[in-house]
Every structure is written in C-alpha cells, then in structure tokens.
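Journal club prep — side note

Before the paper discussion, L.F. wants everyone to see what a predicted structure for a comparable chain looks like in token form. Sequence:
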Amino acid sequence: MLRPYTPEAPVLLRLRGTQAEMGAQLGEQLRELGGYEQVMDFYPRMASAVLSLAVPYRLRASARRNWQRTLMVGAAALDHARRKHFPEYAARTDALLAAAGVPSGFARALAVMDVLQNTIGGVGRLGLLQTTGLQVAAIPSCTSLAVWGEGSRDGALRHARNFDFPGAGVWDRTPKVVLCEPRQGLRYGFVSTRGADTPGVTAFNEAGLSLTAHTRFHRDVNFSGVGVIDFGHELIRTCSTLEQVRERASAMRTASTWGFLVSSARERKAMVVETTGAAVRFVEVGDQALHLAQTNRYLHPDLKVGEVTSSVGFVVDSDARWARADGARARHGGQLGREDLEAVLADCGDPGAPDPDADDRLAGNCIVSAMTVKSVIFEPEAGRVRISTGVAPTGLGPYVDVDYSWDGVVGLVKVEGGAVDDGRWRSPAAMAMRGYVAVTRAHLEGASPVEVRAMLERVVAAAPSEPNYRFLAGIFAVSNGDFRGAARHFGKVLERERGAYRRGLALLWFARVASVLGREEEARRARKELVRVPGVEG
C-alpha cells in the first residue's frame, strides 16, 4: 500500500572549488540533510522497472532481473567512457558518494537514461519495438517553453519546464537548487532532487543561459560518447552565448539521443540543440520569434531520418504537447507572465480532443502528466528560480520563489518565504489526478493487475467523465477478465472522444470485448467505423 507523503521544502545549496571539492561539499550537505536515500535506491533500478512493464505480470519479476543485468553492462561502458571524456566530472561524483557514505558503484547509475534510450533506439533499429512490447517504455513527456521580448508580459525572458520522469513519490519529495562556483568556467546552478547530482538536465548560469534536456529516440546510439548529464554540464559551465553553445556542442559526440532547449536572457533568444550518437544539429528561430517550445521529437530534418517513433501514441503525445506549448501565447492574449507559465505547466488540454479545454479532461496527450515530478520557471534577469513544491504532478503547484546570489558562503542557504497556495492543487480535479499518479506508481513498483484495477476504479469514481481514466480502466478490466466492465468503460469513452487517435483506440478495444461477449452486431459496427477513422502520423 502506497503511503501519502508531503514533499519537503526546497533547499538551496552553494558549492565552490574544483569539481571534486564541490562533489565532496554536496555529499557532506546531503548526509547532514538526509532525504536522498530513496532516490539513490530507486535510480539504479528505474530503467529495468520501466522496461519490464512490456511483459505480462507473471513474467515481470524475472524480466526486471534480466534487464537489470543487461542495463548495467551498458552503464558500466558509459561510466568508463565518462572517466576518459570528463575525469573531473567523474571525480565530482566519486567525491560526492564518498562524502555521503554511498557505495561507489552508484556512479554507474547516472547513465540510466542514456542506457534506457539507447536500448530502445537499438531495438528500434532492428525493427523489433512492436514485437518486444518495448513501445510501452518509450513514452517520454517532458515539455519546455521559453518566452521573451514582446511575447513576455514584462519583456523579461523566462524559461519554463516540466520534467517528466518515472519517479513520482521519489523525485518530487526533496527538491533542491544547487549553485556551483567552479575554479574554471562560469558560475552555474541546477534544479534536481537531493539524491541526484544532475547539473546538465535543468540548469542555468551567470551569463543568463538556461538549459533543459529532453528525451529523444533514434537509431544512432553508442556506448562510448558523452552522457546527457556531462554534455549539459559542460555547456552550462563554459558557454555565455548561444554561439558558444553551438561551438562547444559541435565538439562533443553524445552517447545518446537528446534535445536541449537553451535560452539566453542577454540575447533575447533561444535554440534547440539536438543530438544522436552520430550527429549534433541546431534548430534556431528567426529574429522576429518571441518564444520557442520543445517536447520529445526531432525538429531538425537531418535527424528525423532514423528517428525511432516507437508507437503512434508516442508521436501523437509529443506532437500534441508541442502544439499546446507553442500555442500558449495565442491562448493567453499574445504574452506570457510567470503566472501564465504556471498555467501552461498545469495544462491538461489535448489539441486532438473535441473539447481540449474542458475542465474534466485531466489526462491524455497533455503537458502535465502523472510523471511530472519537477516543474520550474527560470527567471535569470531577476536571479530567481520558481519551483513547484507540490507532489506529482508538480505542474499543479504550489510554487515558491528561490532567489539566489552567486556570492556567499558554501553550504545551506536559507530560502525566504513559502509557497503561494492558490488552491489549485487541492481541487477535486487535482485530487483525482494525484489518485492516478498513485496508480502509475503502484504499476511501476510491481502491483498486480487486480490491485491496479481497483485503484483505477476509484479514480474513475472520483472523475467519472474523464475519458482517459475510463479507457485505462477498460484495459485493466480486460486484463482481469471482466469484459462486461471493459465494454462499459469503452462505451463511455466513445460517447466523448471524436479525435482520430483516441476514438480509434476505443473502437478497437470495444470491438474486441463486444465480440468476446457475443455482441457481434455492436462489434461489427465498431469495426466498420474503425476502418473509416482518419489515419494519424506514426
């Protein structure tokens, strides 16, 4: 049984010195603070847990063990490569683990996302994603949006991001902001959770650059290049301008497949850096642009060739979130302030739905998801990071301002003020969304289909008109052999959904269960309509 939890208030930590010295400082501070143990327990086994969801429940435990052994081979190779590419960053990790009293083998776990993506990319290159079921593991959902100039309510550049990661109940418990003053390079900071030293994923620096990393999937991967954490770390530590980002990124070969939205407050501009294991490309906007969004599909035409689109769901979801983020300014009157960006990070709108802005749509192809475990708005001109302190989905808030200064003593820095509670995160809709988060946590942690179904039925009871919860309840009814219950749920979905993707899925499953129940006329009508549903990309 999952226990309710309340996240701790965010902490602000300041480090200074060589990378190894900063690692030791961070490890000592984490040991004193505590709250990092859960992440360090969960992080090494996360990828195997996700991949094992692709097999039937009775085989899942053995699948986890087998995947864990396989993934650790890749992680060891990337850790070996890391120590050649960036020995100073590896020394930072080693010093942190020693100071925190964590076994040194945890260092290999930092490559977990690179290894997971490379696994999916490699299987995709062989054309086996559908047959292995690994498309289940390939549904990332991070969303970022940078806005500036006349696109911003006060002209200031802001860079907002939802970090979506299969760590609800772990990653969102202990948010932290870390400021780093290295002996060499620019002063920089990053937002993470206490058990993860990830300077290259959600980061900012004294030159006004902000950087957010996003998963991609591609056939071109390797286990000898630079990992995502070090790639982003190097950019944010060494670059003051977007041109410098271009130069430094071009000089590195990454191991895996990523997209980085990088914004510059000084230049009032942003660009996307896209990588595979064989190439780096840049997507820039014209001088008249006032915002730039990114999600999880390649934007550069060169890298679209070889992209692994593991399922129609992956394509539809990423494109839908990009459309909502890209259209946010238009929906908010042409300009976005920080309260507007908070609303974007909490957005449940699905552009493929007939009623994308309906209050009772709480899931689907939308910006906020059950995996949203960190929500951040960078305000570099104000020297401020606005960070959600709520439980997943963190996009619902509430938010607190973390004001920072690059000068000051090493150690824990007091965060003034508390979260501004507008009540949104305590609404009945928010409670239903968090109930669904609990379902996904239980599913990932090995709950049986019977247990997951019971939890889903409670979520449906709390939000009976939400079609995505209904659809999933139907799927788990099928897995439990309750075809009448499944038909009831799929029928409710069909009363609501008109978009090609969602309606097509509901028709397919309704036809299947109706046929099992001997309701052949209903099954025939559903199949007849299904073949007329317009195709979707993917």
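L.F.'s comment for the group: The chain has three domains: 19-137, 139-409, 448-530. Keep this in mind when we get to the figures.
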